[in-house]
Structures are given as C-alpha cells and as structure tokens.
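User: My instructor asked us to take a sequence, write out its structure as tokens, and then describe one feature of it. I'm not sure where to start. Here is the sequence I was given:
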Amino acid sequence: MIWKPSVTVATVVEQDGKYLLVEEEPEAGLGLFFNQPAGHLDPGESIIQGAIRETLEETAYTFVPDYLLGIYQWHSQRAGITYIRFAFSGRVTHHDPLRVLDAGIVRAVWLSFDEIMQESQRHRSPLVMQCIRDHRAGKRYPLELLTHYES
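Assistant: Let's start with the prediction itself. The structure tokens for your sequence are:
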C-alpha cells in the first residue's frame, strides 16, 4: 500500500477584529466543531482555486486571497490520516445570504480571538489555532510561491 497524505486548503479571514470560522458537524454524532473554511483539493483545480471554492461553499462569502499564510502537516490519530494544509489569508468581497452551505456546515460565524480561544476544546484540529496565531504574528508568503501547471 502506498502512503498518501490528504491535501487540504483553508482560509483565515480577519475583519474588524473578528475571524471567519465555520461551525460544522463533520460526522454525525461527534458533535459540533469550529474550523476555518477548509476542505480537500478537488481534481484539476489549483491550490488557490480550492481555497476560493471552499470558502464560498462553506460560508457563502467570496474570498480573495492576498497571501499564503503557511503550509502545515498534521497527523490525526483519530482518523489515521496525515493532512497537508495550505492556508491562505485575504479578504471577503461579497456575501450571498441565500446560498445553501455545504453538507455538515451549520453556520458561518465571526468570532474574536478571545472567543476562539474559549472554544478551543471544540476546534476541529490544532491547525485552527495555529493558523490564527500565525496570522496574528504577521506570517505572509507571496502567492507566487505556488505554481499550477495546466495540462
């Protein structure tokens, strides 16, 4: 068997001192968790396109990436999966309140840093807080770091 990590994308959006998160139920019966807008990369799309798509599908906000926040590797003991997360930061330009959110997403919510810290036991992974800390620390890498080849 060939080992393959799972490639995911995520976005960190801060506006007026609050961060855009989703409250989700990834699996029935496990409870509700907080996460950044995030998900798996789809076949044929660039990493940046994936981040834009996931943010729209999970929050109904149009995301414009400004920079790469970081690349994170995390192994979930519970799932037995290693994730490689490409996290971006940027801004949202439009909200469609009538858009139906992805299955499992309960709501998009804007929370302050303190509120996010208070809900740490409900974070989907340790990457939620790490990405926010990196954002607050001013980590920024140019989008040009990523190259997508079309075949």
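For the description part of your assignment, you could build on this observation: The chain has a mean pLDDT of 95. Try explaining in your own words what that tells you about the chain.
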